[in-house]
Structure prediction request, 345 residues.
Amino acid sequence: MSGEILDERKQFLLRAIVHDYVATAEPVASQVLVQRYQLQVKSATIRNEMAEMSEMGLLRQPHTSAGRIPSDRGYRFYVDRLMPSITPAPEAEAQLARLRQAISEEIDEVLKQTTRMLTSLTHYTAVAIPPEASGLVLREVHLSPLDGRRCLLVAVTSSGEAKSRIIELTDNLSASELTQLSNRLTDHLKGMSPEEIQAVLSRDGEDRAEGAFRSLLEILRDLLQRTSSSEEIMVEGTRHMLQQPEFRDVKRLENLLEVLEERRSVLELLREAVTNRAVQVIIGEENLEEGLRECSLIAARYSAGPGAYGAIGVIGPTRMAYSTALPTVELVARHLSEMFNRWTA
Prediction:
């Protein structure tokens, strides 16, 4: 839909109806608009304008005698064309500053605390996925002695995440020998993806012939592959959805809770956000999952080092305060990128 379809008055009315409906959850009548915005026309004129906008698919009338509410198409036009640019509240910046000081360098803990903060700022359900292996590579390898021939293998990825496994070597190596082996593995594999490590394993030559070294390569490849196929998703603030008037309908609520509990659909939506640089806004019927068709998702990707990205966002009713939720999600995603990239520099 192009911006020329709506004249100035219709654009004003759509913006006003979205704002009023977000605030009240009640259909907006023409007379209310005339009085609230001191429009210098009769309410019948505004009623006719609203009827035309309904025919265009931008508004709908839930009941014959009721006012109008935005349709999914109306929300889309508003988000793409009419939404004002709003700076996140100073409270958001202050909470992010406190968060940076309070949490340790553990990815899971950072995401958990950040999603809690996001849901408290927006009053919507916050969701996030950890960095995934879209270009995830090995950064360094550490081997530490345990007992006998056993040692702890730790692989650190480009996202800063550490994956570990207890392994048993064919020889009993000293701490200094394990350090040398760690350095050799790091020098040999630094910057490699699981696929590139597999290519090393597939080649003929010294690395293929040396059984112990080859075994370590296989373990490191498997650790990276498990990182890249993560099914983890964090969900905070489901209670906020329960407080929305739209979900007083038991059937709608059951459908939504089923999707949030199963999580697969939300996971796929967030993974789609990972592939996009711009913030994603998916509104109502744009969701393929039936349980989310009364909802909107705002999601933004964050960077966690070279080639590693995750996503964070909020789920709320289609009657969402897009103008404040969207910049808040963008701010939080930018904060995560700055934090993780500082760790992995």
Summary: The beta strands are 59-60, 69-70, 125-132, 138-145, 150-157, 162-168, 234-236, 280-283, 295-303, 309-317. Residues 126 and 314 are 4 Å apart (CA to CA). Confidence is low (pLDDT under 50) at residues 205-209. The longest helix spans residues 322-344.
